[in-house]
Amino acid sequence: ALQEPVAGFQKYKQFDDFYGYLEQEVEGTMVQDFLQHLLQSEIVNSGILEDLKTKGIREKKEPKDLRIKMELRHKQVKENRMKRQKELELLKQEKAMKKLAVSEAQKQLQEETMRKALKAKKEEAAIQKQMVILRKELGEKRHLMEEARKMERKRHNLKKIQTLIEVGLSPAELTYLNCDNEEQKEEQAKKQELLNKVNTADQKLWKREQFSEQNGGSNLKKPEKSEKTKCWLRCKPKNKNVKGKKQQKKRLN
């Protein structure tokens, strides 16, 4: 063993050649040491080895035929597609049912709103009709009450006139009492006052003419009475006891 290195050393006469030889020897020794180290060291742990073992067993159990794998894959894809299609169909049906329910609810709400509006309209029409009837009845009632009051006033006035006729009042006074309202009574009173003034003027003129006739001896005739005076004389009561009649009139009023 010792002779071989020595023999190898002696065959190199130049230093460079010998150095190259040593370099190769060193590299070879290093490679051998590294390989020996790898062989002696644990590259993978027990977990990795167990996984590799399990994978190998599973690969042995799985069928190696690719057609079976493709069929299984197609079957799984088909099942997934059918499942997804079924879910979409159910979702579509749910949406349709919800839409139908909303539409039905809106329809019922519209019908209820229309029914309430129609009912309110009928009630309003009935109320208006009843109000018209009540107004008509109220107007008729007022008219009847007014007619009854007029008849009562006329009856009262006729009774009063009859009583006054019995005591001998003039037609002018009876006409005044027979007036229905205050305006007519006031107008009649003004006419009576005017007639009284005309009568007073005629009386004064007649007395003056009589006085002139007595003093002058002339045969003057009594002046003609005016139409208003004649009317007043016709309406003047014939009974001389006028004072008693006035007192009777006051008692009646």
TrEMBL record:
Residues 207-253 are annotated as: Disordered. The keyword Mitochondrion does not apply. InterPro entries: CACF_protein. It comes from the Eukaryota. Residues 221-230 have a biased composition (Basic and acidic residues). The keyword Nucleotide-binding does not apply. Residues 231-253 have a biased composition (Basic residues). This is Uncharacterized protein. Residues 74-108, 134-204 form a coiled coil. It comes from Micrurus paraensis. Keywords: Coiled coil. The lineage of its organism: Eukaryota, Metazoa, Chordata, Craniata, Vertebrata. Signal peptide: none annotated.
